[in-house]
Each structure stands twice: as C-alpha cells, then as structure tokens.
Write a structure and sequence with these properties.
By secondary structure, the chain is mostly helical. It has one domain (15-130): de novo design (two linked rop proteins) (Up-down Bundle). Helix content is 73%, strand content 0%. It is built from five helices and no strands. The chain has helices at residues 4-7, 20-36, 44-65, 70-96, 102-131. Helix 2 runs antiparallel to helix 5 and helix 4 packs antiparallel against helix 5.
C-alpha cells in the first residue's frame, strides 16, 4: 500500500518525496490546478500564472534536492519559496475578485501557510547547519 504520491511517479523512491514540504507542494499544485479549472476562460493569463508558480514551487524542490552542495539546494529552495509567495498573492487576488469561495480560500491559505512555515524551517535549518564546523581530529 502507500499514499497516492508514493504509488506513482517516475522517481517513486526519490528522497524528496519523503519531505513533508514536498508533499505539501504536491498537494498545493493539484489543488490550484483543480480550483482554476472552474475559472472563466477570460482568466487564462491568471490561470497559467497560478499553475506555473504552483508547479515551480514543487519542481524547484525536486531539482534542488538532487544537487550535491547545500549552497545549490538552498538556492533552489529560495526560488521555490519565492514561487510560493507569488502564488499566495494570486490566491488573495482571486479571493478579492470573487473567483474563489471563502471556504476555498481558507483551505488554500492554510496549506500555503503551513508550507511557508516548512520552507522557513528547512532553509533556516540548512543555514544553521552550514555555520557549524566539525571539530578537527
């Protein structure tokens, strides 16, 4: 058995798939895609922008995870985190423009908030561990 995330995908055993941060971005991408399907056709630019930023958030975690250096991983996490903030702004705009219901907004805002927290903790943790130097033998 396993979750839907674990059952599918080319790299089913990839380590990033175990990260709660990545799982949140996976859920967020799917939620944004589903939500934007009901938007009017006249919102094609916003739909594309929101889907791109949700996808970028997830994909940059994946790409950065494969880099061997912490510096490169942090770089990709920063890009992904910025994409999350771009998406958050779009979600707020959709609420203001009455494209999403209060319930949809609350669900997405909660997921974005939890994901933002995980980004900050992950980035801060990696930066803190960078500052620690091992004791010489």
């Amino acid at each position: 058995m396993g979750t839907e995330i674990e059952k599918r995908g080319i790299f089913r055993d990839a380590g990033y798939r175990k990260l709660v941060l990545w799982k949140n971005t996976f859920e967020l991408r799917n939620s944004v895609y589903e939500m934007t399907q009901s938007f009017p056709k006249s919102e094609f630019r916003r739909i594309s922008q929101m889907r791109d930023s949700a996808r970028s958030t997830k994909q940059n975690i994946q790409e950065g995870y494969r880099h061997k250096s912490r510096k490169h991983y942090l770089h990709f996490l920063d890009i992904a985190h910025a994409s999350l903030h771009e998406l958050a702004g779009d979600i707020e705009d959709c609420y203001d423009d009455k494209l999403v219901t209060p319930k949809q907004f609350d669900i997405l805002a909660s997921l974005v908030g939890r994901t933002d927290f995980l980004f900050r903790r992950t980035i801060d943790g990696l930066n803190a561990s960078k500052a620690v130097t091992p004791n010489p033998p």
